[in-house]
Specification:
mainly alpha; 67% helix; 197 residues
Length: 197
């Protein structure tokens, strides 16, 4: 039997960082910012605190890296069902599956982070989404091209309505939004705002 048999191989570089950030996400969603400590993340990742401190000087920096990493792993492709209604519902349903837990965390568990850093929920949301073009923008632009949306009615504030209402519903319920509410956001509120009368 060789010396290395039975011994776990040591993770390094990207593999180690991915394991740490995945463990950090689990710790954050399970315990909130209060339980998001270097010690807890290191234990969950099966590594040591010095390994984390070599990469991130503060808990806030680790949180930011964790959210960026999680956002980069999400499906952000633009649905194309052939209609604005179908595309928006597909995008909202995907967000409901992928992000409702994050939105609950954003509103209910990150108060300590906001107080410690002076950051806002909007800034944390930007960490998750990155600086890429949003699927909603593609959906709405296609709707204008197909003649489903009146471009004169599609103001910058109106463009935000579906997701602003969705986020409100998640934050008020602290859970995923029922499908009938997603349909109401699209059918009863958004589409009447953007279609010609």
């Amino acid at each position: 039997m060789s010396l290395n048999e039975g011994r776990a191989t040591r993770r390094r570089g990207t593999e180690l960082e991915t394991a740490i950030l995945d463990a950090a996400w689990s710790q954050l969603t399970d315990r909130g910012y209060e339980g998001f400590t270097f010690e807890a993340v290191a234990e969950r990742a099966g590594t040591s605190r010095p390994v984390l401190y070599r990469r991130w000087a503060t808990r806030a920096e680790l949180l930011q890296a964790t959210i960026r990493h999680h956002g980069a792993t999400e499906d952000t492709s633009t649905p194309d069902t052939g209609s604005v209604r179908g595309d928006l519902l597909a995008a909202l349903r995907r967000s409901n599956r992928q992000r409702s837990d994050f939105l609950v965390l954003l509103s209910a568990s990150l108060g300590g982070y906001y107080a410690e850093t002076g950051s806002t929920p909007s800034e944390v949301r930007d960490l998750l989404l990155g600086h890429s073009r949003l699927a909603t923008d593609d959906i709405l632009d296609r709707g204008v091209e197909r003649g489903e949306i009146d471009p004169a009615r599609l103001t910058p504030l109106v463009r935000t309505v579906p997701y602003s209402l969705y986020r409100h519903e998640v934050m008020m319920r602290l859970q995923a939004v029922p499908d009938e509410t997603l349909k109401a956001i699209v059918d009863e509120v958004f589409l009447p705002l953007v279609t010609a009368r």
